[in-house]
Amino acid sequence: MYFVYILCCNDNTYYTGIAKNVEDRLKQHNNGKGAKYTRGRRPCRLIVSRKIENKSLALKLEFLVKKQKSHEEKVYKLLHHNNESYVCNSLYCLCNKL
Question: Could you tell me the pTM of the whole model?
């Protein structure tokens, strides 16, 4: 299983990525060992994540989310993508903005 996730960075920008373990990946981002984009924008907070059945589908959904222009569109795409091949077994939201 993989997760597609959205982080809110310290400068109020958003980062979308995939990981097998979102909590560990968030720690990596906040320790400066994550993506280059997040290194200078710490600390980051998890906004939302969605469990996906395999890496290929997770990468496809990540691409679709990254194409969205606004934060709200990104979250909407992640939460409401209706392709039957995506399996959403677990979804949680950790941000009071949603």
Answer: 0.78
pLDDT at 81 over 80: no
Distance CA 78, CA 30 (A): 22
Three-state SS annotation for 20-41: CCHHHHHHHHHCCCCCHHHHCC
To 5 degrees, how large is the angle CA 76–CA 50–CA 39?
Answer: 90
Sign (positive or negative) of CA dihedral 18, 19, 24, 28: negative
d(CA 92, CA 96): 12
Instruction: Locate 86 and state its tokens.
Output: 């995506």
Q: Which pairing describes strands 45-52 and 91-93: parallel, antiparallel, or unpaired?
A: antiparallel
Question: If we measure between CA atoms, which residue out of 41, 51, 50, 47 comes closest to residue 96?
Answer: 47
Q: What is the pLDDT of residue 73?
A: 81
pLDDT of 31 > 90? The answer is yes
